[in-house]
Each structure stands twice: as structure tokens, then as C-alpha cells.
Amino acid sequence: MNRQGVRLLPDRGGSLAAFGVGLAVVIILLGMGRPPICPCGVVRLWHGVVESAENSQQVSDWYSFSHLIHGFLFYGAAHIVWRRFGFAELSPRWALALAVLIEGSWEILENSPIIIDRYRSVTISWGYSGDSVLNSAADIGFMAAGFLFAARAPVLVTVVLGIGFELFTLWAIRDNLALNILMLVWPVEAVRVWQGGG
To answer: Among 121, 136, 174, 194, which residue's beta carbon has the most beta carbons within 10 A?
Structure first.
């Protein structure tokens, strides 16, 4: 099959592999002692208060938009790898499973003491204690949804939507994927003060 004919959507095997990887991540997170659900004992589909004990504990929150963007970006990377460079060693049906592996690896790292402490020390997430397993699983699901959306939507639509999500969350909570990465890797005190309402 030529590069233009490569399909990046998973077949049944690819979908099962993606699900299996996600399930393995859930098992690892439980083994790490992460709480299965919010310690408050309540499960909500949405929690919109960033500075609260339930942030990153429920099914979705403001940072779910970032995970959708992860999916957009992972699909873009897969497109480059398979369509532009003809990555023949691995069938494109595994692209989603590979994206889930990357996202799941981040969820595991994000819930490790080193990253939790980093978030607490350099970002506005002063009380951050990691995600519930429910939230991590949902984050992986949002990434997969973003990946599958990008696989079907025109590139321009995906790009505009991603920028829209970034601007919307920047307006709503003074945070987004770009600022999250910036503050985690190279903290800027002025940004932290602004995010804190200063």
C-alpha cells in the first residue's frame, strides 16, 4: 500500500490493543495506590472548580480539553510518521494503541511523587495530589476521542478547534496545555502570579 493509502484508524485488533494498553495503565495506577475514584466518595461527570480537592478526581474537568488536544497532536505525529515517512515496520492500525501507550505513560508519570511535587512547587496547582484512576482513565479516553476526531476531520477544523480549546481554557481558568507545559518545564513567576489572579 502506498503512503497515501495508509489508514491511521484502528481496526478491531488495533482497538482491542488500545483498550488493553489503557486497562494496563489503570491496573498500574491502582498498584501505585492511586484512589480509584474521588476520595470524597462522589462520582461526577464534570467538575469545574480548579482550586478544589475534586479537581482531577472526576470524569472530566477543565483539563479534559488538554487531553483532547493531546489526541489531535498524537494523530498529527502519527500522520507524519506513517504518511510522510512511510513507517513500514509497524502497521498503521496500531497508531491509536501507540498514542494510548504514550498518554498512559504520561498518566503514570504525572501521578508519581516527582511530578506531583513539581506541580505543587511551580504551578498554580498548589494543593495537587495527583489524579484519581477514574480521572486518568477518562483522560486517556479524551485523548483517544481527540485522536479519532482528528483522523476523520479536515486538518483545518482540527487546528482551529485545538486553538479554540486553548483560548477558551485560557479565558476560563487562566491555564491551558501550552501554559501547563511551560510552567512544568520552565516556570515563569509572572505567569504563576497572573494565573493566581494577581
So the answer is: 136
Q: Where are the domains of the chain?
A: 9-195
Query: CA 23 → CA 19, 27, 36, 138, 195, distances in Å?
Result: 6, 6, 13, 12, 35
DSSP character at residue 50: S
pLDDT at 122: 85
12-22 CB burial, b ≥16 within 10 A, e <16: eebbebbeebb
Cβ-proximal residues to 40 (8 Å cutoff; 6+ apart), any chain: 53, 54, 57
- Under a CB-based contact definition with an 8 Å cutoff, are residues 128 and 47 in contact? no
SS3 87: coil
CA atoms within 13 A on the CB side of 113: 2
pTM over 0.85: yes
